[in-house]
Design goal:
The structure is a single chain. The chain is of the alpha+beta class. The chain has two domains: 119 residues, Probable inorganic polyphosphate/atp-NAD kinase, domain 1 (Rossmann fold, 3-Layer(aba) Sandwich), CATH 3.40.50; 159 residues, Tumour Suppressor Smad4, CATH 2.60.200. It is 33% helix and 31% strand. It is built from ten helices and 20 strands. Helix 2 crosses helix 6, helix 3 packs parallel to helix 4 and helix 7 packs across helix 9. It is globular, with a radius of gyration of 19 Å.
């Protein structure tokens, strides 16, 4: 990947961009000042970012495909780049301009949220290796979840999310808590040594990185470069348990709870009510039954060294 004269194609989600008006323009100006060539492709509907990323990579238009949006936009771009790779396209690095509600991957990578620093990174920065997960064939970078968090994501009204940002998730969580006891899921975890253990859980979150929902920490040992997930099993159902889990997440005490089990895993399968939603990187990406595994290849992502 060239350090000078780097070709950038920015796939921009204008809905996410409305939260930081003008930010993309400043990032683009900083990247161009460092000698990068830059095009901006604007999405208009769900699925556009994935299609654009695939077309861009297949056509050899860029050295770096940049996702300018939230974690959902990044997820689409990652899946588009993977589709291009399967078609034999030359690998592109992934760049990120965080414009979303939570920006979990940006926090995990330690990206600056200052426009000038982001522009310089996109134009001249090096890539780090990230291992993605695969949930029923769909890639995710940070996490996949079944249970309360997936039902919250499934119930979010996009218009409310645009107005309230993270507040929409707080309202959705309150709604799910008030609906009462959660469902039981049967979870099979394949550990790094190949042994399989079986569990019941009220919720299950498969973590590829240690941040969740912004900068909350669920699995302190999880890292994007590791060849294993950390599986977080919430074992108690019901309203009071859900409230206490939410409080523990804010306080950072989830890993110390006796009713939460955290396990390293190479693969995970989850069974439960048919067609229950599965969230990945903050969007619904699959439905039960679920099979999750690490993908074999490495995704190069621009990040501070």
């Amino acid at each position: 990947m060239p350090v000078t004269g780097r070709r950038l194609v920015v796939i921009f989600n204008p809905v996410a961009g409305s939260r930081r008006p003008g930010f993309l323009d400043v990032v683009a100006a900083a990247a161009r000042a460092e000698g990068a060539g830059l095009e901006i492709w604007e999405t208009g509907a769900a699925g556009d970012a994935e299609r654009m990323a695939m077309e861009c990579a297949c056509a050899g238009r860029a050295d770096v495909v940049v996702a300018a949006g939230g974690d959902g936009t990044i997820n689409e771009v990652v899946n588009g780049l993977a589709a291009a790779s399967r078609k034999g396209a030359r690998a592109c690095a992934l760049g990120i301009i965080p414009l979303g509600t939570a920006n979990v991957l940006a926090h995990e990578l330690g990206l600056s949220f200052r426009a000038g620093a982001l522009g310089r990174l996109l134009a001249t920065g090096a890539a780090v290796a990230v291992r993605a997960g695969q949930a029923n064939g769909r890639l995710f970078t940070m996490m996949a979840g079944v249970g309360m968090d997936a039902r919250v994501v499934a119930g979010i009204d996009p218009a409310v999310k645009r107005r309230l940002g993270k507040g929409a998730y707080a309202l959705g969580s309150l709604r799910e808590i008030m609906q009462g006891p959660g469902l039981d899921y049967r979870v099979a975890v394949t550990s790094p040594d190949g042994t399989v253990s079986h569990h019941k859980a009220a919720s299950c979150i498969i973590c590829n990185g240690h941040y969740y929902g912004g900068t909350f920490v669920l699995a302190p040992q999880a890292r994007l470069s590791d060849a294993a997930f950390q599986v977080v099993l919430f074992q108690r159902p019901g309203r009071m348990a859900a409230l206490s889990y939410a409080a523990a997440m804010v306080l950072g005490t989830i890993p110390r709870r006796r009713d939460v089990t955290i396990l390293p895993a190479l693969a995970v399968s989850v069974e439960g009510p048919a067609a229950e939603p599965v969230q990945g990187d903050g969007d619904i990406i699959a439905h039960l039954p679920l099979t999750v595994a690490l993908v074999g290849g490495i995704l190069p992502v621009l990040a501070p060294s």
